[in-house]
Amino acid sequence: MADARITLHPDFRRGAVDRRLFGSFVEHLGRAVYTGIYEPGHEQADEHGFRRDVAGLIHELGVPMVRYPGGNFVSNYVWEDAVGPVEDRKPFLDLAWRTVEPNLVGTDEFLQWAEREGIEPMMAVNLGTRGVDAAAALVEYCNGEAGTRWADLRIANGREKPYGVKLWCLGNEMDGPWQIGHKDAHEYGKLAAEAGKAMKLVDPSIELVVCGSSSMQMDTFGAWERTVLSYTYDLVDHISMHAYYEEHDGDRASFLASGTAMDRFIDRVVASADAVGAERRSDKKITISFDEWNVWYLETRFPGESNLPIQRDAPRIIEDVYSALDAVVVGDLMVTLLNHADRVPVAALAQLVNVIAPIMTEPGGEAWRQPTFHPFATTARLARGTALDVRVDAPSYESKRHGAAPTVTAAATVDDDGSLGLFLTNRSDQVVEVDLAHVGASLSLTEGHRMVADHEAAAHGPEHAAKVADACWSTVELTSTVLEATEGTTTVRLAPESWTAFAGTLARA
């Protein structure tokens, strides 16, 4: 008998996979912007100063959307100071990350970079130190037609055509005491409602993301969502979620169960949102923008914002280096997101370059892939069409931090042409054999890729990162991995502590 059983059929559907689920995040933090995506004078810089080698890796990663400019940074950001001639802009002290911001990249530079690279922008407005006027003005600057104050300023700054930004965040983590302009749920809910109302009066076509609680561990969690949505339910489209995961004290079992914690978090936010909708007798469904998620060694490696010295010149902040174990967890977190595709249309891996990122750069030097790059890129490439309602029957194990967790997780997608993406995690430290049950459907696996957990971090630049990847990331040899294929059942073998992706076809028999 196999150790686990996974049932899948093309008729059992969960929801469409929105391409924005594979979004990412660029904040004015550390080297995410300067010497990250932007480095004039670099041999790979384009005529606008943006690095072509980094853009190439972003396309390979499969990112269709990028959130900007923050993050904590946005809550003390005056966007008007970062438009117009660069030579007229003044540097300022960013209070969130205690860094002198040179103001060389602002709204126009970012949006034009995104446009050139075919990336959808997700813009955030400052609801920390600012409010309704500045938020509505930014929408007008980005999306307004000629003949109004802020649209005409954009035109004067050299951009005649509106940018047409559709997705907007109403601030960032406003329940966090670390946030500049931190507010309680009633203060924020009222402000978000008024700002959002004004923004939609400028452009009724935009989508709005209201801030959820900063994490499931916040004392405000749950009550915050209910209160904020009581003010904004009829106005907004999405509520944000943020979550980071790390290994504590060598507890691999709990770390590998991080996707179980993410799954519970999503279920609880959905329940809170639906409770507000039910109370309002509304047929509208608020969906999730999971616009910050990743492995981040926040508690064990980061000293905290208040302990950072004031720095200049794009300091190296939060440049976590990742291992294959981290990459397995990232792949498993993507399994969780796909399994909630019906309620999570938007997500952003935080962040894109250098700061807890899949892509690293060296100033004046190379750009390279961290181990976490590979499962993300592979999922973004293979997960197309519709997420299936996959049923997993597998033993559970008890983790110290997250309680009972299944040893095997799975997600699957099917496109209109029958193309299958199948994503499996083996959280156990043993080889696992899995029966893929597809009664009434034909299944063929044609391609596979596997990340096997290892603790060695890609800490010594591009050559070492490639060495770590070569040791842990590989093409699956199907003849030895697919053990048996009969009518209605295909059996596959999963390596211990691994994440595996298969491509193939799945169609009604």
Automatic annotation (TrEMBL):
Key words of the record: Carbohydrate metabolism, Glycosidase, Hydrolase
Membrane spanning stretches: none
Family matches, as Pfam families: Alpha-L-AF_C (PF06964), ASD1_dom (PF22848)
InterPro entries in the cross-refs: Alpha-L-AF_C (IPR010720), ASD1_cat (IPR055235), GH (IPR017853), Glyco_hydro_b (IPR013780)
Family note: Belongs to the glycosyl hydrolase 51 family.
Protein name: non-reducing end alpha-L-arabinofuranosidase
UniProt entry tagged with the keyword Hydrolase: yes
Species annotation: Isoptericola halotolerans
Annotated catalysed reactions: Hydrolysis of terminal non-reducing alpha-L-arabinofuranoside residues in alpha-L-arabinosides
